[in-house]
Structure prediction request, 152 residues.
Amino acid sequence: MKDFAGTPGTVTGLVLRIAQFMFAAGCIASMATTTSFFNFTAFCYLVASMGLQVIWSLSLALMDAYALARNRVLHNSILVSLFVIGDWVTATLSLAAASASAGITVLYFHDIGGCTIIAECFKYQFAVALAFLSWLSAFTSSLIMFWLLAAG
Prediction:
């Protein structure tokens, strides 16, 4: 298999995983500091999806860090296939959750005008922005994994 930027066991791969983790954790933290995110199903789905993203990206970041520390290559075709499937699943769930939450944020807080606490509205918008950034880094990582698998 080819060795290029973002593949497992490289510094750029580790940076992508840490970015996914940080954006998803920031999204959860932003939602958790609000008083009523649990009243919206899309926000609950966002927290659940970002929780899965945190677990997935942290475990792969630790695996990348281990591979870098031991100077090992993680290009086993079965392992890369697992990375491809996991990345595509988490990227799809993250995009769906971020899109649903963005739709609710725009509808409820801008169109209907149901936002009375400005600081809380800002936290919802910030969480959605972090969710999209998490999805962007997860999608980039999933494309790299798919490219690595196809390059065989």
User: Anything to note?
Assistant: The chain has a mean pLDDT of 89. Helices lie at 11-32, 41-70, 77-111, 118-151. DSSP finds four helices and no strands in the chain. The radius of gyration is 17 Å.
